[in-house]
What does this fold into?
Amino acid sequence: MLRTLNAATARRWADLAMSALSAEREAIDRINVYPVADGDTGTNLLQTMRAAVRTLDEAAPDTLGGVFAALAKGALGGACGNSGMLLSQAIRGVAEQLRDCETADGVAWREALRRAEELAWQAVAEPQEGTVLSVLRAAARGAQQAEDLAEVVRSSTRAAIDALAATPAQLPVLSEAGVVDAGGRGLVILLDALHAVVVDGEWLAPNSPVPAESDRLEHESSFDYEVMYLLADTDAERAEALRGRLGELGDCVSVVGDGADSWAVHVHCDDIGGAIEAGVESGRVHRIKVTRFADQQDAYARDVAVLACVPGDVLGEVFAGEGADVLVTGSIPVPAELREAIVGTGAGHVVVLPNDLDTALVVERAVAGQSGEGPEVVVVPTASPVQGLAALAVHDPHRRRADDQVAMAEAAAATRRGELYVADAEALTWVGRCRPGDILGLIDGEVVLIGEDLTTTARELLTRMLTAGGELFTALIGDNTPPELPGELSAHLRRAHPEVEMASYPAGALDSLLLMGIE
It folds into this structure.
């Protein structure tokens, strides 16, 4: 249990919050009924948080204040939708309050929540009860009676959960649809993620019920378009005048700043040109985004997919047989090829198994280069196909996504990987010098054995891998694997480790003689 927040724990919260929003994105989208049932509140919150974390990655600050300042800057620049605008202001409020702090105790955090509430309410031209604003206000007030950090975070999160449950009684459109406020649900997830960081992984909020697919929510807007842009070269007076002008053109008006010289603008209206011209008269407009509500609909054929990167067709058939979509890379994929495969799954949420360290680097670059459109992508770090199969074995598309991703990552990390190679040149390894033709045994990428006889070296490598225990031995058999080797290893297990099961799969062309995994 933490007594203070610092830069490292704030960073951990940002990563966990982004992961939790990713897991709950679809559920939040499906309860999005106010102010417009355009099914994108979860997506907008996630994209805003992703932009915030991307800026944090680039800045790499080493103080608590610096972390939240970077998150606030990124959230404002990447804010999507009304919910994203409000999130950016909440983070800005925290950043302003903790600007000069190396750490924050409970008292400092409750003051940060108070400032977050203040700025979020100021951001909206016509604040409405029963929305994320009500939930944030309850969180800030719930924190006021505590001083210890864990109690402040617990009290604010519980107050937010209660306030979220009360939103249908405050907003008739929510009551009619039988849902809670979507933005409020997103805020609860963010607060709960902090509670999980502070209180040893404990989550407080239950999953909110969502309507069935056949009960898609409908709430007509008075306007057809959502207009957003960033505004520079202006000041608070002109920004306030712009807010008033946009209020004459439409509703859901937000004109929010970063406390310096950048502003983000949001409005629902019919007169797109008028909304943009009003901004041009107030400063320098850039990064314009216009969305037609009628065009916003579920673009995905299924909810979730697992995409496995594999070196050949034979191994691809193994992963496909276990339920994964497959990208046969041959060697290392290019980012464009990977992005095409991700979109090609037709899923709104894609879990990628790179199954190779070099491929993992390409995958991370491709995912980081996403524009914000398209499916949500999570990369589970798998350095070998044996780890990919272990992760795929525990995948459950019906489980809460954050929990499923953790389970897959844990299964992969818990799988020790071994490889057998024939040395093709003389080299110095951790266990001595090898010569061409020697048999090399590797565990987790490091040479641990040099032998002359393949079967003997394979048995010894397997014995070493089982030193720390294990229940399942997986062998991926390549085209160049001697056909008698799997049988020799199976016999060795029956004699020396009868408690360990063995599963073998054909793997086609491999650089190694054999890939081994211990779970």
Observations:
- DSSP finds 18 helices and 16 strands in the chain.
- The first helix runs from residue 7 to 30.
- The mean pLDDT is 87.
